[in-house]
Structures are given as C-alpha cells and as structure tokens.
Amino acid sequence: MFSAARSSLRRAYSTAAPKKLTIGLIPGDGIGKEVIPAGQQVLQALPSKYGLTFDFMNLKAGFEEFKNTGVALPDETVQTLKTKCDGALFGAVSSPTHKVKGYSSPIVALRKKMGLYANVRPVKWVQGQGIPVDMVIVRENTEDLYIKEERIFNRNGEKVAEAIKRISEKASWKIGKIALEIALRRQKVREQTSDSIHKSASLTVVHKSNVLSVSDGLFRETISNLYKQDLAKYGSVEYKEQIVDSMVYKMFREPQIFDVVVAPNLYGDILSDGAAALVGSLGLVASANVGDNFVIGEPTHGSAPDIQGKGIANPIATIRSTAMMLEFMGYPEPAAQIMAAVDANLKENKITTPDLGGKSSTTDVVEDVLRRL
C-alpha cells in the first residue's frame, strides 16, 4: 500500500536489499511482551517463495526497564538498531501520567534518535466489523509539544506551567511529502482492485491556525506550498484542510470522506487513537514509524495493564504492524499476504479476542492467522 512513499523517501531499501533480515524486537511493557512474539511468529511462517529468512535480536526499553536500571532507553538498544538491524517491532510502554524524575517515554526518544519522522497509521473497515472507513493518518513524529521542553515557574505567588510547541518548515515539508506520496500510491492500488470505499485520492491537512496562526500556520502553509509547487505530480490528489476540532467531529460523523490525513504530532496522536473506535478496537490498529533509513512497526494500543498476563491481548495490531514494517522495507508481496490473512480472520469473525466480543485467546488468533498464511 505504501511502497511508493517508501521508495521515494527511504532510498536505503531496494529490491537489492539482502534476503536475510535482522529484526529488533522491543516488547517494552505490559502486553507488549505478549503480542510482539506474534510478529516474530508471522515472519517465521512466511512462505518460502519470498526467499526471506530472519534473525531476531531481543532489545530492552520501557518504564519497567527504567524502574530496574534507571534508564528507559539503553544506549545499547539504539546502537544495536543502528548497526545490526534492518527493521524493528516495538510493543508498548507504560508511561506514567505523573512526573517521574529522570524518566521520559522511550518510544518518543527512539523516534528522534532513529530519525523516524513519520508515524503512519491506517484505519480500515473490514466487512462485518465496524463502519465503512479507509483512511491513513500520517502524524509528524519529531516535534510539536512532544519536544518536551517544559518548565514551571512562579508568577505573582502562583505556579505556572509552560510547554513549547515547535513546528519547523523542514519537518512539515517532509511529513507533507510522505503523506502525498502515500495518497498517490493508494490511488494506484485502488485502480487495480475494488477493495476501497474511495474513488479518488485526497489529502486533508489538519491544523488549528485560526488560533495558532504562527506555528500551525507554518505547518499548513508549508504543505499547501509543497502541493502547489508540484501539481504535475500531485494534481490528481484533492487537497483539503480541516481545523482539528471540526476534524474530530467529521471523522466520527463521516469517516468515509477521509482518505489520507496529515497532522502535527499532538493532533495526529489524538486523531489516530480516536479513529480506532471506528473499527471496533485499538487492538486492530497498526502503525509504522518511518524514517529515510529505518522503520519500526508499532501497534497503537498501550500496555493495557488491566489485561496483562491474561492471554487475551489482541495480536492483530502487532501482526498488521509487522506487515507495514515489511512494506516500508521494500517487501510489499509478503506484507500483502499477511494483511490478507488478517482480513480473512476478521471477516470470518469466529476466532477473535474479547475486545471484539469474542472468547479466543491471543494464541488462538495468532494460530488462525498463521494457518491462513
């Protein structure tokens, strides 16, 4: 689905890439430890016709790692990814809602250290499950409020907290570029199949520039200029803009009108998690953290401590994230076969975890997908 975007922005991968791939496995916290093995199993079960074999490296990161060692993202994990791995899968992290001295989210840090500037989250309806929706939310991954430059100070005897929102022209251009490339690629796929609710490609730029005219204004203007400067290439993509609060309303009322959506970091985070409700569960929604030279597949659900250890975590999001990782690494055929196996499981709707109203275990679902491969 996304290989055109990958080929133009991630030139390190090509059809000449090695057939033996080393994948870093970072379970993190909570149910991450239960679902990341599903991604490994699916890769190991791929048909031999693809000529792919895999080595796996177990790596550490997360709040539990921080509590044990005082470091949430060990340098060894980052260096191993940079020097020994072709791609990676990340599970979940249990970041506390209160301030913990010395701690910051390892996945946010990992995105920055690995140059993973785009978080790509498809949300797709499958027949018999959820309501008609087929959109991709492309979230800028490196800046906005997530730069975590905060301070607290005293003003006239009261505490005041302040956070910096940073939007750059360079980051906005890069995220706009990959979003437009994804829109073009999705349209090419639609022309070859009938498996979509959309007839043509569109890009919706989400912002709040009616209030944040400088920061969100720069984000909106940069992507608009990018589109206008290359109409010969992007003219077939309908360009739209949507203020973020209106976007939330329309996304739930008319999700079928959205194709590719691009947003700054915070809005993209909120929108992509909210969009999971359109298809029934966060346990279905995959993502890929994409840079020019690396990709990390990541299910969008959290660590879910309420179901940890019960064996009922939905592995579908991780399996789909595994397929996305392969897609962005330049292997669209095996990625498509994994996606087809997942869709077949959901359409049959017999072997599903409790979040989808079923009674099956994590293992049951994994085994069913493996059988369909």
Automatic annotation (TrEMBL):
It is an enzyme of class 1 (oxidoreductase). Residues 22-369 form the Isopropylmalate dehydrogenase-like domain. GO terms for cellular component: mitochondrion. The keyword Amino-acid biosynthesis applies. Its EC number is 1.1.1.87. Pathway: Amino-acid biosynthesis; L-lysine biosynthesis via AAA pathway; L-alpha-aminoadipate from 2-oxoglutarate: step 4/5. One of its GO terms (biological process) is isocitrate metabolic process. Its cofactor is Mg(2+). It catalyses: (2R,3S)-homoisocitrate + NAD(+) = 2-oxoadipate + CO2 + NADH. It comes from the Eukaryota. GO terms for molecular function: homoisocitrate dehydrogenase activity; isocitrate dehydrogenase (NAD+) activity; magnesium ion binding; NAD binding. Keywords: Amino-acid biosynthesis, Lysine biosynthesis, Magnesium, Metal-binding, NAD, Oxidoreductase, Phosphoprotein. InterPro entries: IsoCit/isopropylmalate_DH_CS (IPR019818), IsoPropMal-DH-like_dom (IPR024084). Pfam families: Iso_dh (PF00180). PANTHER family: DECARBOXYLATING DEHYDROGENASES-ISOCITRATE, ISOPROPYLMALATE, TARTRATE, HOMOISOCITRATE DEHYDROGENASE, MITOCHONDRIAL. Belongs to the isocitrate and isopropylmalate dehydrogenases family. This is homoisocitrate dehydrogenase. It comes from Dekkera bruxellensis (Brettanomyces custersii). The lineage of its organism: Eukaryota, Fungi, Dikarya, Ascomycota, Saccharomycotina. The gene is LYS12.
